[in-house]
């Protein structure tokens, strides 16, 4: 079985629909962290259908202020979505930090990250299908946990799990509301038709809470929260905090209006208005760096999470290397054993030759007696069947035998005449003096 494409490191967050894990995608020298979203109930077909719809919609998004879905997979734990990992904090973390320290978030920080979120929402609202038709997408869960600020200072919208668009079958049962109660628009609480302006109401609640440093519509029960949203007049942020620009105060009144028609026409309109205010604040108080703020207040926590991720990645690599070499060693031992077994099965069995029996003392005495009496004697010495027997050399098989004539057989042996060596020299037929060779042998 091939290894999984995404290896879980640890859990990042958990919500009503499921959980989000930090994972790593590795291939050779390539390595990238990503966020894996899984269902709380992987066998629930209704929730699986919602997750698939989220994957389809978020997969169409291509905007720097929105977190897209990069991949979809299925394993032993069920369906999962692969999203871009944002190394940073959520708006909920910012509010928690402000509540613990008792210090309000800087106005310029609140304006800049809200501008980014408004741009991301506008990209979602303007999303079109492959044929170019507008989808009329509504996020329906604009709330602090679903808004992220990266360490480099860019804010992004994530989690389109309960988003709805034109022509889609409503997966929400009648009388059941999905989303976080404190950020739902009044028309949703009344189960009335709603559009992108419902997201703008949630964005107004978030901006108000960032500036005020506390929850806007809090309550002991969801019914109490819903009644406050439906019946209370929009709150005045100027009563909660000094130094909020008048344009922002007016904008919040419009965003938090009970009547959708009184809210801004689009999220881009909100972003443009806040951008003008942020530029004037920058000229008045100097530029503000969101990345510096995140690093100064959350740097240690982000460093600890990065270190934990780094160690988890290294542990996984070490484990993979150990498993790799263990498998290789096992494979080598199996191959060696199979090879030895094959060799053993194919090798012919040859009996070990026995050494010839040595003659005894009695045998040696009998041989000596035979030599003295010149009598032949037969000495029986046992010899092993495989012991080679020494024989006289013989011509090879098939070699022709030399022929000898009868005349050669009857001819007496030649006797060489003796040479007179009193005079070792002689004269040949030509009269030249020559040495008698036989006299010098």
Number of helices in the DSSP assignment? 11
Q: What is the global morphology?
A: rod-shaped
Strand order of the largest sheet: 1-2-3-5-4
Share of β-strand residues: 5-15%
Q: Percent helix among the residues?
A: 40-55%
For the record, give the distance between the C-alpha atoms at the N and C termini, rounded to a whole number.
Answer: 94 Å
The H-and-E topology, N to C, reads as EEEHEEEHHEEHHHHHHHHEE
Which value, in Å, is the CA radius of gyration?
51 Å
* Biggest β-sheet description: 5 strands, antiparallel
How much is the average pLDDT? 82
The tally of beta strands, per DSSP, is: 10
Based on secondary structure, the structural category is alpha+beta
Poorly predicted ranges: 377-381
Overview of this protein structure:
The chain is of the alpha+beta class and 441 residues long. It has eleven helices and ten strands. The protein has a five-stranded antiparallel sheet. Strands 6-7-8 form a three-stranded antiparallel sheet. Strands 9-10 form a two-stranded antiparallel sheet. Strand 2 and strand 3 form a beta hairpin. Helix 3 (107-125) packs antiparallel against helix 8 (267-285) and helix 5 (197-212) packs across helix 7 (246-255). The chain is rod-shaped and about 165 Å long. It starts with 5 loop residues before the first strand and ends in a 6-residue tail after the last strand. The relative contact order is 0.08.
